[in-house]
Amino acid sequence: MSLTLHHCQGSRSFRAVWALEEMGLPYELVSWPFPPRALAREYLAVNPLGTVPFLIDGAVRMTESAAICQYLGDRYGPTSLAVQPGEDAYGDYLNWLHQSDATLTFPLAIRLRYSFVEPPERRLAQAVEDYGKFYLGRLRWAEACLADGREYLCAGRFTMADIAIGYALQLGTFQKLGDQFPVHVASYYQRLIERPAYQRALLR
Ligand SMILES: N[C@@H](CCC(=O)N[C@@H](CS)C(=O)NCC(=O)O)C(=O)O
To answer: Among residues 8, 18, 43, 190, which is most buried (max CB within 10 A)?
Structure first.
């Protein structure tokens, strides 16, 4: 096994770092300034998309953070972090993994672009406000599930789905939306960030 992860602090590659730390796998971390497409043009020779995460594992190349979490759990398990196809929660698990980026991180990426990445003359206060509300509204599904008192999203245990959703909550918090999280989501997020592997990942 020889895992190399290309990473930018605070970006979606955090999901992969957190998953690697939870599993205790050895890996090489290569850190870039954000966005590498603009600030480190040589990165395009590594990943033509210019995005992070970028995981290299032998001949395998991966650019999707939730898929990387799923891959690590399945390829380098067995681990309780992965939910198996034979488990009742398998469908929920996949849905959370995909929801984490396609539904929850997407509005935050638009906010980030129009409040920070674009030069001041191209920033859009309306987009920042609208997509903030959009994101908060989309936490409704997680809030409804967590309201039954469960500690984690599915399978009765901490899984890769919690890592994937946890990053979408971290990014919302970094964008100062954390004080508007619904009550069960807020305490769930608190539980996640107290994990030693989360804390180690923050320091990478
Ligand atoms: N769906 C992909 C999105 C990857 C992505 O867009 N990453 C952002 C960082 S959070 C990025 O690299 N942006 C820089 C750019 O687009 O140039 C994932 O979940 O990893």
So the answer is: 18
pTM: 0.98
CA distance 186 to 142: 11
Residue 202 lies in a domain: no
Binding site membership of 51 for ligand 1 (Cβ less than 6 Å): yes
In this structure, are residues 65 and 6 in contact, taking their beta carbons and an 8 Å threshold? Answer: no
Tokens of 35: 């966005």
**First vs last Cα of the chain: how many Å apart?**
20
Query: What would the two tokens of residue 199 be?
Result: 């804390």
- Which amino acid residue places its CA nearest to atom 16 of ligand 1? 51
Q: Is 10 in the pocket of ligand 1 (CB under 6 A)?
A: no
Token readout for 107 is 């509005």
Alpha carbon distance 6, 43 (integer Å):
9
Q: Is residue 204 part of a domain?
A: no
Question: Which CATH number characterizes residue 7's domain?
Answer: 3.40.30.10
Question: Are 159 and 192 a contacting pair, CB within 8 Å?
Answer: no
Spans in the chain with pLDDT lower than 50: none
Which position has the token pair 């989501």? 185
The whole-angstrom separation of Cα 9 and Cα 147 is: 32
